[in-house]
Protein: Elongation factor 2
Amino acid sequence: MLLRLALPRVLGAAKRPSTLRQTRPLATRVPPDAVRNLGIIAHIDAGKTTTTERMLHYAGLTRSIGDVDDGDTVMDYLPMERERGITIQSAATTFGWRSHQLHLIDTPGHIDFTVEVERALRVLDGAVVILDAVAGVQAQTLKVWRQAEKNALPRVVFVNKMDREGADWRACVDELSRLTTPLVLMLPGPSLEQWYDVVTMELIVFDPQDKTGATLRRSKVEPPTAELSEARVQLVEALAALDAQIVDVFLSAGDHLKVPAGELRAAIRRATLTARACPVLLGAAFRNIGVQPLLDAVVDYLPAPGVPPAPLDPRKLVAFAFKVTVDPQRGPMVFVRVYAGTLDARMALVNQRTQLRERATKLLQMYGDAVEEIAQIAQGHIGVIVGLKATRTGDTLCEPKVKAQLHGIDVPPPVFVCAVEADAPQDERPLAQALSSLVLEDPSIVVEHNEETGQMLLRGMGELHLEVVQDRLRRMKVNASFGKVRVAYREMAGRKASVSHTYAREIAGRMHKAAMAITVEPAQDNTVEVELGDAFEGAEQPSEVHRAIVEGIEGAMSRGTLLGFPVARTRVTVTNVEHFNELSTLPAFRACAAQTLHHTLASADSVLLEPLALTTVECPGACVGPVLGDLSMRRARIVSIDHGEEAHVVAEVPLGSMLGYSSELRSLTAGAATFSMEVVGFGPVPALQQKRIIQESRGY
Ligand SMILES: Nc1nc2c(ncn2[C@@H]2O[C@H](COP(=O)(O)OP(=O)(O)OP(=O)(O)O)[C@@H](O)[C@H]2O)c(=O)[nH]1
Structure:
């Protein structure tokens, strides 16, 4: 039910999370092959948080089971997350299962938080993909699946919500077979509490008397049912197509049913590690069914961290900061994965982006929102550093004298914007401080100060993203007001235009002068070309002059002349640069380039470009008519329509016309539809529309 997201779920005050029973589940120093760094990824509302809460409970971390519907979960611990029942920030937690140490990252399913998912995927070795047994593989599942694939992450699939009417695990497996080789390891039994284990050929019974589902019993199925035998045959056959060793085992066993469970597990593990096959488990987390077999599968089939990637020296510390949260008491808490060496408390670290030396004051292990201080974070593990002041998400940290740059995080350009203003002069400083800690935490937020209007602009990935930022600022007790959330357009030269301009200005008793001509024209991408000409032959600093002009142009291109949005798809050529001997300083060239470009763009009939979102709507077949009618009013270009009982509509729609879409779609389909959006590019705004946007924005 994606639509629920647009409207805050009204609950009472957020409760405390379920109490922690076991604060020291395992020492940090378990052998590396007993560590699993895993994420849970899925379409929104598939049940990630519900499943995670059960995992923590069965692992002994919580006394009672948290419930997203009651707002008392451990993993969703921001007040807004508890209120809305959605996961916003990836929360990392550590727990033990069968003598293994699991570092688990819960990732948000909403499209606005794709960067959060991306940053989590980078530090994981494997993932659990949760499907809703009724909805199957959904649009956002596909997106996160592809993200996982890009990172070659081995995956285990959990088909959740098997208790719902219309649950169809076979349809889920069919859909999965378009993406991978599904290895079905469980089958439904005679009742919701009874399941068949295809690997051990056992019946698993979740004791109906135990309301937490913690008690389960296993018994051999003798003789196996026809369905179980068939599933066993299919499992062995699927593995045989991928793994030569299991063929040998099968040939000596002589029968699919006689292949020993241990050999099967080893083959499933080998196949899963290649990321070409996925074990599939079934359950209903909300009913406390199926979570322990899922945890077993994590331990049995997902990879251990492995050796440090080349060319890292395994003895020298290299760590990657995949998340920063600013805690009011502790200050910035930097979540790291250690790729090589061992991180000790009080170790000096050099941030490879800033080259600044920082010192860790404490190391912590997180259990939901509870913490334990630890002395070390060993290679392959995930933990938290306290004491770093200037480390951002995506930074690499090394011990002094070691140089290494781990993969950064690609942040797509923010496409939504809103103005933010301190309520009174004394609120300006707290606002600036709060914004700078939010930027440390979330690299997909951009804060911009417009010197001409004095306005501060917040740019983000989506409506919900900016609402979350606003909500967090309010909770940080910052007194500020926010403008309407708008789409962040781009501006492009509408036609070829040239302007010559002379800059001359006296500053502190000294004259600065330069002159040049600039031509702009529409293009596929932004390019800047500077021809310095004969006047600069033999001059002392042609490369510095060149750089100053490019800097001036790049600065001016960040603010177009129509509404101040960044300039895109425009070719800029600088010619006839004039030199006035000692008057032509580098600042004069920089300022002249910026002013000339500004005048040129102003005479080039600039046009607005709007972000285009590829939008996928899934709805009951009967709702397709109204959904299409509404999309066409939003200037959508329909890409495909997949009719059926459950219809699938893909359309390219201007993002600006999708503001508030979730509540509209909800009323059109009585809450039966879900949708996802992804910005795929920019396209010109029709002339009439442009006039209206400019009028609304400028007020004239
Ligand atoms: N019937 C049924 N409902 C479930 C099951 N698991 C979860 N739910 C419900 O589905 C809804 C979404 O569950 P969450 O655990 O919040 O889903 P999520 O994937 O974490 O959602 P986001 O964090 O917002 O992406 C809640 O109302 C749950 O109670 C299940 O096994 N069966």
Notes: The longest strand covers residues 607-620. The chain has five domains: 27-301, 318-398, 416-488, 492-605, 609-698. Residues 586-602 form the longest helix (17 residues).
